[in-house]
């Protein structure tokens, strides 16, 4: 059972402590929102589907891309580094301000479809998405089986009609 308390600032804080799971807390503007979130989260814990989303809710795609470019890209060939930096800027323009948790299949598919409609070859679009793939498809192990809010591999699939 969740503990819901009113904070001095007037917001509501929900805290869930369940044996076998990490303690999870989140703050809301209304008590109703706190109750709904705690009910959903406890249900996910009971069913074994709970995924800690706090990190991906706080980190923007742009910040994750910067980290990738700083840590992973330098380990690649110089020509690959240049290409990845160029492709990353196109992705940053579209997804940069979104949190990692907010990017879903629909956004990826919309980007893919727009690039195809602009006359890009299917392989070019696939390669344009490649710097984003580590952040979106591998951020947790159940991604391929995923829920409707998580990017699945079908969104990455690029085929000419």
Which structural traits does this protein have?
161 residues; mainly alpha; three-stranded antiparallel sheet
Strand content: 5-15%
Structural class: mainly alpha
In what order do the strands lie side by side in the largest sheet? 1-2-3
Please tally the β strands and state the result: 3
Distance between the termini: 51 Å
Globular, elongated, flat, extended or rod-shaped: what is the shape?
elongated
What is the residue-averaged pLDDT? 81
Unreliable stretches (pLDDT < 50, length at least 5) are 138-153
Describe the structure.
- The protein is mainly α.
- The chain is built from 8 helices and 3 strands; from the N terminus they run E-E-E-H-H-H-H-H-H-H-H.
- Strand 1 and strand 2 form a beta hairpin.
- Helix 3 runs antiparallel to helix 4.
Question: In brief, what are we looking at here?
Answer:
This protein is mainly alpha-helical and 161 residues long. Helix content is 50%, strand content 9%.
